[in-house]
Design a protein that fits this description.
Elements: H1 3-31, H2 49-53, E1 57-59, E2 71-74, E3 79-83, E4 93-102, E5 107-119, E6 122-125, E7 134-137, E8 140-155, E9 159-161, E10 169-172, H3 174-180, E11 185-189, H4 193-210, E12 226-228, E13 233-235, E14 249-260, E15 263-272, E16 275-280, E17 295-301, E18 307-308, H5 318-325, E19 329-333, E20 336-343, E21 346-353, E22 356-364
Antiparallel strand pairs: 1-2, 1-11, 2-3, 3-4, 4-5, 5-8, 6-7, 9-10, 10-11, 12-13, 12-18, 14-15, 15-16, 16-17, 17-22, 19-20, 20-21, 21-22
């Protein structure tokens, strides 16, 4: 081979190899957005902390598993939403909201204004995809206001880009790991879709927490003093002769007489497997009825097969009861405790034990008078 030709080809190969290296470096540079060293000492951020921290949400995991891990959204209006991991069944604090700011040296400050947390309930061994050994069940979600606001300060650590990951940007918030668990690494979920899902989850939870103490419950009406198994419906203070239920009666017993002033009311008990009915002429003199007009004056449920108009049955959690009816009036009678709800001369009482409804009675209060 001619040496001159060989030298020529070697030069051509060297030139092509140089071009290849140049293009490779440009490609790598394009794949990873440029960043400048930060004031806090080279943590890799583009030194506009605010713009880097906003624009989506931060997730304490590179991918979505059986549920969301911890999430943190730092919004453009300087408010934030923190959501606890959906796989954490043991943590009572579910959402934290307030305002945020970040200093030039990379200190993220969260002013905690409101917390949505589980109250009450039971701690039991975890089941399903729960990532904790225990979980809280039958708890009520409540709002806790913080005035003055509680301050959380988190140092912003390294900011890393990894083009091989589906969520290439991640940030180290080591103090957040100490506060909320995890290793302190959070991945950025850019765009509006995941952020909007977080906002919607928070709004649903806040609406549920707002209903706990009955502020938005509908007022009681006559329909609330009825029970049903989906097929048979029994209405308090309705005529006995109008009662039509497709269930076998166990027995009927004459209970006796109740005296109210100068008036005498007679009471009969009709026993069924799931409930007891008491029929009487109570308050006939006050309601323009005849002495022999018998109405259902009491319904006592004995099994969870029948539910109230608002869906509460024996075995229901107290939190569900309060969510459906409001706080009610507490009673303590002969050692039995519970909540009472009243409409006119009708009472709806729920006996409670171990944070569960153990008895339900709807009754007409007996009044005297002329």
């Amino acid at each position: 081979m001619n040496m001159a030709k060989g030298s020529y080809f070697m030069k051509k190969i060297s030139a092509l190899f140089y071009v290849f290296l140049l293009l490779s470096s440009l490609s790598a540079y394009a794949a990873e957005p440029p960043r400048t060293q930060g004031a806090s000492g080279g943590n890799g951020m583009g030194r506009d902390f605010r713009s880097e921290l906003t624009g989506g949400m931060w997730h304490a995991g590179p991918a979505l598993g059986s549920g969301w891990a911890n999430r943190l959204a730092l919004l453009d209006d300087s408010t934030f939403i923190y959501a606890a991991s959906e796989m954490d069944g043991a943590t009572r604090e579910r959402f934290i909201t307030g305002e945020w700011s970040v200093s030039p040296d990379g200190l993220l400050t969260l002013l905690r204004r409101e917390t949505l947390k589980w109250e009450g309930g039971e701690v039991v061994p975890a089941t399903g995809s729960t990532g904790t050994k225990t979980e809280i069940i039958n708890a009520a979600l409540v709002k806790v206001k913080h005035d003055p606001a509680k301050k959380i300060v988190i140092s912003v650590g390294k900011y890393v880009y990894d083009g091989s990951m589906p969520r290439p940007w991640k940030i180290s918030l080591p103090d957040a790991g100490a506060i909320w668990g995890g290793d302190g690494w959070w991945w950025k979920y850019e765009g509006d879709g995941d952020l909007n899902e977080l906002k919607a989850s928070y709004e649903r939870a806040r609406a549920e927490a707002g209903n706990k103490y009955g502020a938005s419950q509908k007022p009681l009406g006559t329909q609330d003093f009825s029970v049903s198994d989906g097929k048979n419906t029994i209405v308090l203070d309705s005529p006995v002769m109008d009662l039509k239920i497709d269930l076998p009666k166990k027995e009927t017993t004459y209970v006796g007489e109740v005296y109210s002033g100068d008036f005498v009311y007679k009471v009969h008990q009709h026993a069924y497997a799931d409930f007891d009915l008491f029929a009487s002429n109570a308050n006939y003199n006050l309601k323009g009825r005849n002495f022999d007009d018998y109405h259902i004056s009491q319904i006592t449920l004995k099994s969870p097969n029948f539910k109230t108009f608002r869906g509460i049955a024996i075995g229901s959690a107290v939190e569900d009861l309060i969510r459906a009816y409001g706080p009610g009036e507490k009673f303590n009678r002969d050692g039995a405790v519970g909540l009472r709800y009243t409409f006119g001369d009708m009472n709806l009482e729920f006996g409670i034990k171990n944070q569960r409804v153990q008895g339900i009675t709807a009754s007409v209060a007996v009044n005297g008078g002329h």
